Amino acid sequence: MEQKEPEYFDKTEAMLRQYIGDRMLLFKLKASEQSAKLTALIFIGTTILLLAFFLLLFVSIMAGYYFADLTGSLFYGFGIVTAFYLLLLVVLLLVRKKHLQPYITNMVIRKIFEKSPDDENNTYSQSN
Fold first, then answer.
1. What is the C-alpha to C-alpha distance for residues 62 and 70, in angstroms, rounded to an integer?
2. Number of structural domains, the chain?
3. What gap in Å lies between CA 112 and CA 34, rounded to an integer?
4. Taking all residues of the chain, what is their mean pLDDT, rounded to a whole number?
């Protein structure tokens, strides 16, 4: 039986180590890209929510004064606005597990596993 040259195993080991290193680097790059996208989404979402909160706050104050003008009492005017928000809170609490939570969960999962154009072009094209 002919014996393989000792360099063969050394070369194979070096290639295997290089391949594993490249795969780890690719994994780190993809993970950092996904975390950067998720961080940007959270930042933009937080900014939008903050602006929407202030908009809602001032619209609620306006509505409170409007209803106060209609009813002739600040107490009843702002009470109507408070009752509206209480009703909205009850509706949200009733639908959160069935509709709201799965929607948010699916949206986050879709964003994390979103494929970039590079992923679509390189889907195991080396094995062909």
1. 12
2. 1
3. 6
4. 87
What single string gives the DSSP state of each residue in 97-124?
IIIIHHHHHHHHHHHHTPPPHHHHHTSS
Which pTM was predicted?
A: 0.61
Find, among 32, 56, 55, 46, the residue nearest to 112 by Cα.
Answer: 32
pLDDT tens digit sequence for 48-86: 999 999 999 999 999 999 999 999 999 999 999 999 999
Contact 38, 107 (CB under 8 A): no
Q: Report if residue 89 sits inside a domain.
A: yes
Name the helix (H) or strand (E) containing 17.
helix 6-71
Amino acid at 82: T
Q: Which of 125, 119, 121, 124 is nearest to 34 (CA)?
A: 119
| Residue 101 placed within a domain | yes
Domain of residue 91 covers: 30-115
Could you tell me if residue 82 is inside a domain?
Answer: yes
Q: In a 10 Å sphere around its CB, with 0-12 CB exposed, 13-18 middle and 19+ buried, how is residue 6 labelled?
A: exposed
Residue 88 placed within a domain: yes
Of 70, 103, 67, nearest to 85 by C-alpha is: 67
